[in-house]
Amino acid sequence: MSYHELWTVVSNWRKEFSSGEFARTFYSPDPNKVLHDMTKKGMFERIGIGRYRVRDMKEYVFSRNDVRKAYSLLHSTPLPYALTSVDAVYVWTHGGYNADRFFGFYPIHMKVKKEDLAKWKRFFAKNGYKAIVNGKRPGETLFGTFFVLYPEHGVAAKEVESLMVDSLDKTVEFCKKNIYTFEPALEMLDERYHLHLEAKYRG
């Protein structure tokens, strides 16, 4: 039985329960590990010592889509990175422009050093997030908030609002290459940073 199947069963059993009640009801070689894993996945919530509450589907979906929490997670690692692509635009416009993402599907794009790739994957897995390598087909259908890693030999970044991000020049270049989607972002960047792009990109 998968964790999702067990979650459905437990939802119809009790909304709150103790670890002892769970172990006596559901035979398992390691019930504490099951409780730990399902809590980490957001299916259960620990509400006290040895006590748990079942999260409903709405709570679970919202927990998987907590974008602010995902960005904040990057503050807790010493590994070098640079938010890139649409995320560089999002940060440089101070949240003013976002594209190709919506509630339920929110990839976060970031450059990382190639030699740190395994460390990043472990870091995200430990914190309950999926991470895939750009250009590689994922092994499962992805939804919620997840990370797309761009392996690089070196990572150059600027700090903007406590996040490390591609330079403004690279971000403008990205917008120009994807002008049909990011022309409004160019206008925002032009206005905020006085880039003198108005005559070329407006109208």
Molecular structure report:
- With 203 residues, the protein is an alpha/beta fold.
- The chain has 2 domains: 3-61; 66-201, 2-Layer Sandwich (Beta Polymerase, domain 2).
- The chain contains 10 helices and 9 strands.
- β8 (158-160) and β9 form a beta hairpin.
- The protein is elongated, with a radius of gyration of 21 Å.
- The mean pLDDT is 90.
Could you give the topology of this structure?
Elements: H1 3-11, E1 16-18, H2 19-25, H3 31-40, E2 44-48, E3 51-54, H4 57-64, H5 67-73, E4 81-83, H6 86-92, E5 105-113, H7 117-126, E6 131-133, E7 144-152, E8 158-160, E9 163-165, H8 168-177, H9 179-193, H10 198-201
Helix pairs in contact: 8-9
Key structural traits:
alpha/beta, three-stranded antiparallel beta sheet, Beta Polymerase, domain 2, 203 residues, four-stranded mixed beta sheet
Estimated helix fraction: 40-55%
Structural class: alpha/beta
Distance between the termini: 59 Å
Mean pLDDT: 90
Strand order of the largest sheet: 4-5-7-6
Unreliable runs: none
Number of strands: 9
Query: What sequence of helices (H) and strands (E) makes up the elements?
Result: HEHHEEHHEHEHEEEEHHH
State the major sheet: 4 strands, mixed
As a whole number of angstroms, the C-alpha radius of gyration is 21 Å
CATH C-level category of the largest domain: Alpha Beta
Number of domain modules? 2
CATH topology of the largest domain: Beta Polymerase, domain 2
